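Researcher: Let's try something more involved. This one mixes different molecule types, so please make sure each is placed in the same coordinate frame as the others.
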Amino acid sequence: MAWNLDIKGLIHPFSALAQGFKQPHTLSYPVEQRAEVTGYRGFHVNTISDCVGCGNCQDICMNEAIDMVEPLSPEAMNPKNASGLVPRIDYGRCCWCGLCVDVCGPDSLRLEGDCVYVSPDADSFLYMPKDK
Amino acid sequence: MSETIKIFHGPQHPGVTGNMSLELDLDGETIVKAVTHVGYLHRGFEKMIERRTVIQAFTIVCRICVPEPDPNEENFARGVEELYGLEVSERAQYIRVMILELARLQAHLLWLAGQGGSIGHEIVPQWAIGERDYILDLFEAITGGRVYHMYIYPGGVKRDLPEDLPERLLALLDTLASRLPEYDRIFFDNAAVKKRLQGVGVVDAAECVRNSYSGPVIRGCGIPRDVRKDAPYLVYDRLEFDIPTQSAGDAYARALVRRAEMHQSIRILRQVVEQLPDGPIQCKLPRHRQFKIPRGETYVQSESARGAFGYFMAGDGTPFLRRLQVRGPSIVHAFTLLERLLVGAQLSDVALIMNSLGICPPEIER
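Model: All components are placed in one shared frame. Result:
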């Protein structure tokens, strides 16, 4: 293909140099932290005193990431919890779709903004939601 | 007779848009034969969906296409609504259009980054990915997720918009509209980019029609075919927008089509904010095991950033779909078109042509 002299096309790309005088898009982490987003689908929390142990969350989970287990602190459990069990999430399977939260009758199971978890113990990824 | 060598381009290659392999026979730098191999990314989505209730399945469909998951969610939701006979509120329909157009914008920015990277233009990928992140921030605020939104739900959408969303969206659209001329200066008007893209990967209009190409490929040949106009869905018939076309049919024409589509998406989003009605966002649904899809079949289609995206769905009176078939635009673009375009092309043009066609292997293999 023949090369036609394109003055505009040769000069215009140099306008990118003007970006050097602008502020960067990025944050200086960890000095600057990103603002938490309301409604972000992060880790689960479960208010044990409200949970009725119905297992709806376990039933709807399409990844079979939820199993119902005995709570870490049985004394905080809702007296109306008929099964005596609360959900535990396998974060190797969870896709954070939020269906378990949608079907939770007493709204005890929720997703919060926190989404960073580091542990050398692989078993700890069978995660017991914090009681909040 | 010259001797040819065979190389495998992919499946793990930065110049391949996803996990697929190209078997290339080279005579020097020139490709004399190209064969597409897929199968490295098969996750069996269609079969998985047949074994999950429709409410459970809606969380899977978005994963069929990473760069633009929302047309999948919308197609799936609309198919279920057609089979079950659900009425979607007007507000939910406008919100769906908002999500789809934001998805189109971010998909075009991702394409721009890929197209820039494929020709060694290192500035535009940095800019485009940065700009795309602002759109993902907005998705995060609306849906709770950045890439996979799992938001468009049979019967409506999962949650209402945040109160400050119209202001945030309009501010973002103003920013993007002011940035597009800067992209023109460094990329679309750039003499080196034109030299690289013009005359490469040329497709003619007759071939497009004969082989059912869609999206920027067919519009780059001068045919204004777009599902949003040809078979309007949601509230696209109430919105004013043009179908940009180019006549050259080469990679540069497809780039200009996408550039003009970004402008049209901004125009649509401004109208959506203006016309957004009040009302419910979700209709009442039965419990997921009682949500039985009546016996019947449907085919729904939407326009993604890469072309027409179709879903065939069949119900049989159970909470599970009897069959789901996904037909993405990449199927014809990756086999019929890519294999032909690569013959006679240079080895360095492979990534360029793949990006220009917008090939996405996950939707080929599902």
